[in-house]
Amino acid sequence: MSRSSAWSFATARGSVRVAPDELRIRRGVTRTVAEAGSALAAGRLPSALRDVGWTGIAAVTAVVPAAVEWLLQGGGTVQTTFGLLGLLAAVGGVAVSVARERTAAIPLRDIEHVAFDEGELAIVHRSEADDERETERVRPLDDAQRADAAVALRLRGVDLRGVEGDEAVSRTVIDVPKTELLA
To answer: In CATH, what class is 7-28+105-175?
Structure first.
């Protein structure tokens, strides 16, 4: 955990900085790609691929028959061109989604609580735009990073839930009274 002006901890897709007035979630592109690979290897659909949507489905349904036709007949067709354009649109959609979700800043005053749930941290907060409840999920890289997250969040006065059952979090963090956020 860095203790310069903000505490930080590493996540599976980047890092989280717990600054004096806000929580900054930064997702790295290389870690996002690595997380996608490990999720696929574990049999899960990575979040970046969940954003492909209908464009990706249309691209796959257009590319597969076109690729088979191209291999059997030895040349490209109009259908292959449209399939490749659909595939390009799907890849572009994933890239835009990853870029859009790369950084998020949440004011500490808007955070209702952080739930420690099966290795993930669910950050429940109020949206600045429409004052609705939103949830950001981050997965600390390992047990040490999860423990660092608990310490940093507790020191900033964030309500922690589910830490009692988390073996990585020390009793000091669990038993210490909640601190007040200073203005």
So the answer is: mainly beta
